[in-house]
């Protein structure tokens, strides 16, 4: 059943390699970079770290959406439901006198817990129906939230528990929380995708039926990803709340978040860990540079999206790596023959 | 018996595609399945591996009722399957494709799964393409990949759906050798194939399916000699004629006809 000459028996069995030259460099560089970023509140002005909180939140969101769509094959436009939920978790914690920073953890738990029944509902839908279904569920979350007077009904409320903390310290703590969230999210997705579950997810993304035939528990793998992504988006919403100290339902539950997430991931490169980070940086740069020009900002976003769809179909990261094997965070397996 | 099927049926709308099929396959034996296009052969495999749920009937694997088990559960219980139209994980390498079966189907841990996957690729002659993306493979190599992945699940029951289609005469013997080896290792094999002479090399028993029902079952030579079987083949489409030319005329040397000659 072969049309190639049989190769002589190899002297040693092939070895499975899970690193690349680039990843070994990245591993060495990563620690100093994270340490430098952690020291930034002592080195830079508060407005710099304030901006970086926004960027880290975007990176977190992009990473989570990529986990859902790029690895789990679930195109959701309803992640704002969990962002809003996370923001309101901080608000509720604040109402009960709990430290809002502790609310970050509660937000993750709340989003993850609510993701389970949500998954039960939306997993009955597929493709475009799944996308719309998640959006509808997010709208329901919003509509239920604004029914509660205690959290300001339709107009929202402010986070008051942090008013005693000096602004500079508050900014630094928020920044460290955001940095930790990003490091955990990227590191977590990296480890997840290298695990058995990661192998299963990649298979599901490419061919769900064949994956099931090869023993992959498709539904349970997808459910885990959905819950993890919900927790991540909940955390992002909580970060937005402690950063801005104000939670407005129309803003935190806005479908615009989904549009941003899709933009970042598609621009950066779907199904890679590096791509969404790059996409978030590009999106953040466009947002900051064009903020004074109003609607032009949306025009440029659209133009960039069209350009990426035409010229960089595997995203900017795909353009950077092209055909080279440059993977900073490799999740795959390569066989190497030692001679 | 590794597999016992009783009264299996499945309809789509008003059309009964698999109609009251019963069959048994024991350890280390191979059942060849022939039949014209649209006879329900692939649907039968889909029912056996759990991709489709049966409307009626009972499927027992090693004496355990798996009629309601999911495809993943059945794979873990020992059902391996190749698809007629290959379904590779296009974005993964060939090695990773096979690894999915070794890790999730056979339930091996990392080191053992790596060794098993390499072994399966070696067996099917695909090892030299291990690091290529499965989506870049040509049809023939995709078929090899289907077989490698199914073998990686360490199946007790192997379901082959037209795995020889498109292979040249030079490539056939190697495939036949692999399937024989798997069968002689104690695995039960069900092989759907239009290339009947390939099937005769391996099959211990033969089953002819027509319009979803069992038309004939028994010794391969006897089944192929059955006038009813020859009738459905002659009445079938052009692709089915590939089988007709391969069906030896009555009394002419049948490779698997001599009893006790099983290699």
TrEMBL record, chain A:
Membrane topology listed for this record: Multi-pass membrane protein
Cell compartment(s), UniProt: Cell membrane
Domain of life: Bacteria
Pfam family, one: BPD_transp_2
KW Cell membrane (keyword) present: yes
Keywords: Cell membrane, Membrane, Transmembrane, Transmembrane helix
Coiled-coil residue spans: none
Keyword flag Membrane: yes
Residues passing through the membrane, by range: 25-45, 51-69, 81-98, 104-123, 172-193, 224-242, 262-286, 293-312
UniProt xrefs under PANTHER family: ABC TRANSPORTER ATP-BINDING PROTEIN, HIGH-AFFINITY BRANCHED-CHAIN AMINO ACID TRANSPORT SYSTEM PERMEASE
UniProt protein name: Branched-chain amino acid ABC transporter permease
Lineage: Bacteria, Bacillati, Actinomycetota, Actinomycetes, Pseudonocardiales
UniProtKB/TrEMBL annotation, chain B:
Domain ABC transporter intervals: 3-236
A GO term for molecular function: ATP binding
SMART domains (UniProt xref): AAA (SM00382)
Domain of life: Bacteria
Record's keyword terms, sorted: ATP-binding, Nucleotide-binding, Transport
InterPro entries assigned: AAA+_ATPase, ABC_AA/LPS_Transport, ABC_transporter-like_ATP-bd, BCA_ABC_TP_C, P-loop_NTPase
Record-linked Pfam families: ABC_tran (PF00005), BCA_ABC_TP_C (PF12399)
Official protein name in the record: ABC transporter ATP-binding protein
Naturally occurring in which organism (per UniProt): Pseudonocardia humida
Source taxonomy: Bacteria, Bacillati, Actinomycetota, Actinomycetes, Pseudonocardiales
């Amino acid at each position: 059943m072969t049309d190639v000459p049989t190769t002589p028996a190899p002297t040693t069995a092939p070895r499975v390699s899970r690193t690349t030259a680039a990843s070994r460099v990245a591993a060495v560089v990563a620690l100093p970079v994270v340490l430098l970023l952690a020291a930034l509140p002592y080195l830079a002005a508060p407005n710099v770290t304030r901006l970086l909180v926004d960027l880290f939140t975007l990176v977190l969101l992009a990473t989570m959406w990529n986990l859902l769509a790029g690895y789990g094959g679930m195109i959701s436009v309803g992640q704002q439901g969990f962002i809003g939920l996370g923001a309101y978790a901080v608000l509720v914690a604040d109402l009960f006198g709990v430290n809002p920073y502790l609310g970050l953890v509660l937000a993750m738990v709340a989003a993850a817990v609510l993701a389970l029944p949500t998954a039960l509902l939306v997993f009955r839908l597929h493709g475009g129906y799944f996308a719309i279904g998640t959006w509808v569920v997010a709208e329901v979350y919003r509509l239920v939230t604004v029914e509660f007077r205690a959290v300001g009904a339709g107009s929202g409320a402010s986070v008051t528990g942090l008013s005693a903390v000096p602004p500079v310290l508050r900014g630094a703590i928020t920044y460290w929380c955001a940095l930790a969230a990003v490091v955990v999210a990227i590191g977590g997705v990296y480890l997840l995708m290298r695990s058995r579950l990661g192998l299963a997810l990649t298979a599901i993304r490419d061919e769900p039926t064949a994956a099931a035939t090869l023993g992959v528990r498709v539904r349970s793998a997808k459910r885990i990803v959905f819950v993890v992504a919900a927790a991540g988006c909940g955390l992002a919403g909580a970060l937005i709340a402690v950063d801005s100290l104000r939670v407005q339902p129309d803003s935190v539950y806005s479908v615009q978040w989904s549009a941003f997430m899709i933009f970042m991931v598609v621009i950066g490169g779907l199904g890679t860990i590096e791509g969404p980070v790059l996409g978030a940086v590009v999106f953040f740069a466009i947002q900051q540079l064009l903020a004074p020009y109003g609607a032009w900002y949306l025009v440029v976003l659209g133009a960039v999206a069209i350009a990426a769809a035409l010229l960089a179909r595997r995203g900017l990261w795909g353009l950077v790596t092209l055909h080279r094997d440059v993977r900073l965070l490799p999740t795959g397996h390569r066989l190497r023959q030692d001679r | 018996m590794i597999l016992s099927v009783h009264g299996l049926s499945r309809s789509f709308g008003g059309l009964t595609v698999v109609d009251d099929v019963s069959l048994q396959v024991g350890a280390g034996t191979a059942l060849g399945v022939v039949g014209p296009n649209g006879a329900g052969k692939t649907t039968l495999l889909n029912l056996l591996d759990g991709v489709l749920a049966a409307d009626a009937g009972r499927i027992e694997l090693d004496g355990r009722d798996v009629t309601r088990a999911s495809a993943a559960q059945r794979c873990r219980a020992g059902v391996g399957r190749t698809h007629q139209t290959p379904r590779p994980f296009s974005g993964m390498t060939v090695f990773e494709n096979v690894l999915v079966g070794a890790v999730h189907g056979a339930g091996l841990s990392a080191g053992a799964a790596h060794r098993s996957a390499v072994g399966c690729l070696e067996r099917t002659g695909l090892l030299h393409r291990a690091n290529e993306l499965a989506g870049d493979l040509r049809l023939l190599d995709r078929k090899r990949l289907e077989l490698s992945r199914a073998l990686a699940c360490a199946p007790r029951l192997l379901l082959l759906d037209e795995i020889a289609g498109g292979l040249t005469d030079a490539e056939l013997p190697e495939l036949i050798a692999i399937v024989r080896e798997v069968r002689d290792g104690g695995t039960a094999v069900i092989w759907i194939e239009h290339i009947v002479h390939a099937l005769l090399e391996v099959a211990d028993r033969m089953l002819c399916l027509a319009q979803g029902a069992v038309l004939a079952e028994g010794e391969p030579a006897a089944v192929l000699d059955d006038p009813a079987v020859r009738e459905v083949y002659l009445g079938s489409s052009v692709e089915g004629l590939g089988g007709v030319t391969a069906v030896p005329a009555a009394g002419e040397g049948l490779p698997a006809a001599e009893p006790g000659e099983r290699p």
